[in-house]
Amino acid sequence: MLKMTRVIFVALPMLSGAAYAQETVKIGYIDPLSGGGASVGEGGLKTFQYLADELNAKGGILGRKVEILPLDNKTNPQESLIQAQKAIDAGAHYITQGNGSSVGAALEDFVTKHNTRNPGKEVLYFNYAAVDPSMTNEKCSFWHFRWDANSDIKMEALTNYMKGNAAIKKVYLINQDYSFGQSVRTQARKMLGEKRPDVQVVGDELHPLLKITDFSPYVAKIKASGADSVVTGNWGQDIALLLKAAADAGLKVNWYTYYAGGAGGPTAIKQTGLDHQVFQISEGIPNSDVPAAMEFEKAFRAKVGISLWYPRAVNEMRMFKAAAEKANSLDPVKVAAALEDLKFNVLDGGSGVMRKDDHQFFQPIYISSFGSRSEKEPFDEENTGWGWRMVAKIDTPQTVLPTTCKMTRP
Amino acid sequence: MLELIVISTLNGVLFGMLLFLLSSGLTVIFSMMGVLNFAHASFYMLGAFFGYQLTKWIGFWPALVLAPLLVGAVGMAVERYGLRNTHKHGHVAELLLTFGLAFAIEEVVSMIWGKSPVDYRVPAALDFPAFTVFSTNYPAYKIFMLAISGLIFVALLIALKRTRVGLIVQAALTHPHMVGHLGHNVGRVFMLVFGVGSALAGLAGVIAGPALVTQSDMAALLGPILFVVIVFGGLGSLPGAFIASLFIGLVQTFAVALNGSLASAFGPLDPGTGPSVLTDIWNVTIAQIAPVLPYVLLVVILIVRPMGLLGTRET
Questions:
Q1: Residue A15 has what pLDDT?
Q2: Whether B8 and A220 lie within 8 Å, measured CB to CB
Q3: Number of Cβ within a 10 Å radius of residue B2
Q4: CA distance to A24, A112, A132, A134, A161, per residue, from A141 (Å)
Q5: Three-class SS of residue B266?
Q6: Backbone phi, then psi, for B130, in 5-degree steps?
Q7: What is residue A406's predicted lDDT score, i.e. its pLDDT?
Q8: Among residues B272, B256, B181, which one has the least CA distance to residue A212?
Q9: Mean pLDDT of chain B
C-alpha cells in the first residue's frame, strides 16, 4: 500500500512532465526526508531549491531551467539506489546527496556501474556532505565529485587547533557506528596520538546511526569518564539529541564537532550554557565577515527561514553552472571533464579547486565556536541569540592531503 | 563509577517504566483476545502527536488528560468496528487488520504532521533540574515521567485485583468462554480492555514525546521491543510485564555503560593477523551490541522457558 502510493505519486508527474523533460536540467536530490535524518534532509532540500531558483532567475544553465527532484532515501543505502533509478527514469543526469557516507558509497558504486553499462546515458553524482575519505581514495570514481572537505582533512584541521590548547587532558570520542563515524574515531586517535601524546583518550564510543532517541546513558558515561573534551562527528538528530542530553545532565565539557550547527544543535547548546565551548569545523559560517556571503545569508534566511548550513551546496551549484558553460554543454561527460581542475571563488571568500586526481574539492575551512555575539556578528541561530564566531582559518594549500586514487577515465 | 551506576539505574528504571505503560495494555489484550496487536505502538505515537497538538492549543496539563482519552476512544472504535467484525474470520484476519492499521496510522500521522520531528517541548513548569547526584543534574521532567508511570502501575494493580471489573477481566484472561457463558458481556469487556490498553499507550506517548523525539517513525522504533517484553514476561501476566519491562530497560541502559569486549577480557589478538572479521568481533564492545541484546534475550527465553518468566501458557 505504502509503496503503491509512492509509485503512483512519482509516476504521475513523470507522465505529465514527459513533454517538457527536455527543457529542464533535472537534479535528483536523494536524502532523508523521513526518519532520524529528516530534519537535516529537509533543510538541504530547501537549500537546493533556493539555489535552483537563484540560477533560474538568472536564466538557468545554458538557457535551461534547473529543477530539483526530491527523493526520500530514509538514510538507507538500498532505498537510495531505488531513488537514484527513479531519478534517472525521470530524466535526471545529475544526482546530489550528502547525508550518510554509507549512502554515498553505495551511490558512487551505483553511478559507476550504471555509466559503464549505459554509455551515452551517463549520470554524475555531486556529493555535498558525505565525507568518508575512502570515496576519494580507494573507492574513487570519475563520476563522483565532492564539495565538502573529507573527514581526514577536517580532523587534521581540528586536531591542529586542539594541539595548541593545553587545557585539553582527557578526550572522549563518541561517533556513529558506520563507515564515517569509524573513520572519525580512527583518525582522531591517530592524529591526537601524534600531535598530543600527553592527551588521554578516556572513552571511545560507537552508537547506532540515527536510532537513539535518548542519549542520557551515553552522557552519564562521558561524565563518569572525567573527560574535559568530546570529539564527535555526529550529525542530524544524533548531535542535537546528544547535546540535549548533555544539557539536561549539566555536562560541562568542550565539544569539538563536525556538525553541531545542524537542526536542533544550537538550541541544545544554548541550553547547556556552554558559551564558546562548542566548536565546529566547516567551510563557512553565517558571521563570516565576507560581505557577499553575508548578503547571501540574509536573503536566504528571509526566504527559507533557516540558516545556511551548506555553503558548499552554493559552491556546488554555482560550479556546476560554471563547468557547463565552460564545456558549452550539459552532457555529463563533458561537464565532468570541465569540472576537473576547475578553480572557483567560493562563497565564504578565497579560492578553491576541484582536484583532478580524486575529484575532491579543496577550499579554505574554518573553525568556529558558538556563543554570545559581538556587534560584528549579526546572525544568531534558531532564535537563541547566540551565533557562530570565527576562531581559526585554514587556507586551501594547508588542507591538501595526498590521495591513493587511481581513477579510471572513460 | 558509583555515579554511573546511580544514573544508569535511574535511566534504566525510567525507560523500563515507559515500556511497562505500553506492554501492560499489549499483554492483556493479547492474552484476552488472542490478537497480537501490531498497532499498539502506533497508539503510543498517536498519543505523542495528540499530546503535541493539544499542548499547542490548550496547554500541557489538559493535554495530559485529554490525549490519552482520545487515543482510548480511537482504540475502542478500532475494537468495536474493526476487530469485532473480523473476529469471526479467525486470528489471522485480526492480525492482518492490526498490521495494516499500523501502516495506515503511520501514513496518516506523517500526512498531517510531516515526517520530520515536531517541536514538542517539556512544559516550562517542569523544565528544571530536580536534583543533583554527584554533579550530574537529573531533569524534573524525568522524575515526573517516573511518578506518572508508577502511579498508573499501582492504579492498574488495584483495578485488576480489587474491583469487580478487574475480576471479570482476570477471568476472561484465562477462560473467556466460561465468562461468556456466565452471562457477562464479553464483547464489552473486550472493548473496554482494548480502550484502556490504547489509552495507556497514548499516555506513554504524551509523556515520552517531549523527552524523546516525536516523529512519524517513533512507533517503528519502539514496536519490536514491546513484543520482546511481553514474551519475556509471560503472556497475560501483568507482574511479568512489569518485571520484564524493568529488566529490559536496565539491561539496555547498563549495556551502554559497559565497555567490555572480548579484547579487554582476553587481551588483544596477535597483531600479525591483521584486520579481519575475527578482529572485528573481538573488538566489539558490549555498548555496541546494546540495541541487539533484548532480541538475544527473546531467543534465549523462548528456548529455555517458552511461557516466559511468569506466564502460564505456552507462547
A1: 45
A2: yes
A3: 9
A4: 26, 7, 14, 11, 32
A5: helix
A6: -75, -45
A7: 93
A8: B256
A9: 87
pTM metric for this prediction: 0.86
Tell me the shortest Cα–Cα distance from A263 to chain B, in angstroms. Answer: 10
Which residue of chain A is at minimal alpha-carbon distance from B255?
A217
Which of A238, A230, A227, A216 lies closest to A277 in space, CA to CA? A230
- Candidates A5, A34, A223; nearest CB to B216: A34
Q: What is the pLDDT of residues A16-27, one digit of tens each?
A: 444 444 579 999
Residue whose grid cell is 457477562:
B184
Contact (CB<8Å) A214/B256: no
Residues of A in contact with B218 (CB under 8 A): 213
List, as one string, the DSSP characters of A363-396: --EEEEEEE---TT----STTSS-EEEEEEEE-H
Q: A with B: how many residue pairs have Cβ under 8 Å apart? A: 96
Closest by CA to A410, choosing from A144, A125, A127, A142, is: A142
C-alpha span between A201 and A189 (Å, rounded):
8
**DSSP type of residue A151:** H
Rounded distance, CA A225 to CA B3, Å?
10
Contact criterion met (CB < 8 Å) for B137 and A207:
no
Average per-residue pLDDT in chain A?
91
Q: How confident is the model at residue B88 (pLDDT cuts 50, 70, 90)?
A: confident
Here the contacts of A91-94 (C-beta below 8 Å, separation 24 or greater) are A91/A21, A91/A26, A92/A26, A92/A27, A92/A28, A92/A123, A93/A25, A93/A26, A93/A121, A93/A122, A93/A123, A93/A124, A93/A330, A93/A332, A94/A25, A94/A26, A94/A27, A94/A28, A94/A123, A94/A124, A94/A126, A94/A320, A94/A332
Cell of B8: 544508569
Q: Does the distance separating the beta carbons of B117 and A237 come in below 8 Å?
A: yes
What are all long-range contacts of B219-223, with beta carbons under 8 Å and residues at least 24 apart?
A: B219/B41, B219/B42, B219/B44, B219/B45, B219/B102, B219/B105, B219/B106, B220/B41, B220/B106, B221/A211, B221/A213, B222/B22, B222/B41, B222/B44, B223/B38, B223/B40, B223/B41, B223/B42, B223/B102
What is the spatial distance between Cα A41 and Cα A26, in angstroms, rounded to a whole number? 18
Q: How many Å separate Cα B213 from the centre of its chain?
A: 15
Q: Which residue has the cell 531519478?
A: A87
For residue B3, list chain A residues with Cβ-Cβ distance below 8 A.
220, 223-224
Confidence band, pLDDT 50/70/90 cuts, at residue B315: very low
